């Protein structure tokens, strides 16, 4: 009897593992489509507090929903146009940045050569030439440009999801027992994700505005672009802020020298530490309730499955998967 139970358990594990492999392979194959859908889901949750706030302040439901949808559509299109303009401007300035970088690179090489240090012998740095660095920059800008090419679809999906989420919230009291539709089940599993996204987006927006002011004061090019970049990178725990500060620090160095680069880095770090360690915990009722190791593993896994966009989606997707696990495998849904 015990042998039969063990074989049954082993078979369930093997079948579950095989299904998981198929699902992950399918997600990798559909990464371009899934990235748009998941980003729309994340942005919808980020914007959802706005119509709820309007309705709490006695704005009728229909005008609140309509105003939110108009803000999403026109604001999303305006943001995409601005980012496209910024990418074109950055692309046009890359040759000038490459010239400045080449001069700095030559100075460093000469300085080290005078001290009998050959940078070409250091394997991790031997391929880090100005042309390759600019090549990586062009590749990243191209990927962002491709993502912006789907802006209209993304905006429409955000508007549709907002409409569905609001309608589902209003109908929630009508459901009994196991009669909930799929979207209601997913909303239940995403309940703590909504709180996380709302707090992260609100605090990230304020931090982004402060960063923009700092960049403008220090004369960094494309200051608003780097503020928008920070807003999205803010959803990546641990490493998001470090990634967001690299472009303004690099441009500050190439345009104005080391003093400006250090000033950008120091002021950004102070602003980031103040919000992440002092202010943000006061707004968030509870922590992510996800171990640090799981956060790192989720970043690695989702970036492998969905690409670079997966790092932004890693924590919310992991929270949803965890909640669905508690709901469907271990019994009742985990309290949020």
Mean pLDDT: 76
**Cα-to-Cα separation, first versus last residue:** 39 Å
| Rg (C-alpha, Å) | 24 Å
Q: Label the overall shape.
A: globular
* SS strand fraction: under 5%
Domain unit count = 2
Instruction: Determine the structural class based on helices, strands and strand pairing.
Output: mainly alpha
Order of helices and strands: HHHHHHHHHHHHHH
Please work out how many helical segments DSSP would assign.
Answer: 14
Biggest sheet architecture: none
Brief overview:
With 336 residues, the protein is an all-alpha fold. It has helices at residues 2-29, 31-47, 49-56, 61-113, 123-126, 130-148, 151-171, 182-189, 191-218, 223-233, 240-256, 258-283, 292-306, 309-328.
